[in-house]
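Here is one chain, start to finish.
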Amino acid sequence: MNLTRRTAAATEAETAGPERRTGLTGRGIRRAVVMLLLVTVGALIPLLGPRMALDGTGEAGAPGAGGIALLRTVLLVALCVPAGELFVALLVRRVPGAPGQAPRSWAPWAAGAGLLASLGLASVVATGNLVPDSPADIDVGGLYETRDGKLALLEVNAFAAAGLLALSRRPAAQALPLAAVVVAEALRAHPTTDYHDPLVGTALTVVHLTCAALWAGGLPHVLRTLRTRTWRSSGPGTALLGLYARAAAVLLAAVTATGVWSTLRRMPPGTVLDQMTETAYGRALFAKVLLVAGVAVLALWARLRLRRTTDDPLDACAPARAEVVVLGAVVAVSALLTALPLPIRW
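Its structure:
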């Protein structure tokens, strides 16, 4: 009987089309096309965003703002992916009877992308915050002489360390270099010449960026986990989604609170509404607020469906797939904000 089954399976594999043998099914091709389109649209946000945001404001954008925004988008995505994986790993430990199967980690690839992005940003800092025309324009030694240069080097080294740790037997140790990237980004966003206490701004950005990375990076990994056979066919899948939903609500509250506080520190309350339409930074910030509101609506919809459905958890949280897309747009707009002129202190 076993020999007959093996023979039948071999015959089926031999007669199957090339799509079946190579794994390129119609569904897989559609997913690849959709992913390519989403990545393309995501790249257009930082590339074209500065020009659109600055149009009609009378403000001057920095040279190469689109390219810088794109590099910072890659850097933020590279931060979110491993942070989300570590976050979900902690949630899995709290699920009773959780299967041992887990999807393949994307952390090494994310670290490689983050390393390339941080090297590109470091080259910009090494040329006096200008896009270099040739390698001869890059003053690597000058990076050690400036605050921004040292922070850029810290991010390069942090992503390199995160990639090595992701391939090691203790991938959880990535948390330390990832935390270094968060701190470096917070310090870069609040120089010592900030018009308010830079330490307060740095602390707000650390909390904001940490919560955003866990939130945006956690959801894709939860969905990838639930696509594995053992999770999808078991009750713990619904429990994992419930744990993430509750944690995401707390993270959203923290992101909102720190975002509003940071905005009021940079824009006096009486000027916020005007700057939302008259400055490039305000326009991008307004777009981010709308996107975050959309994510909140999708998350609430997914939560309601999860409560009403006891079958396949992926079917119960279908809106979560759209939530991932909108979260990607939030990350791209957040990177765009870093490449625009700071809001005006009226």
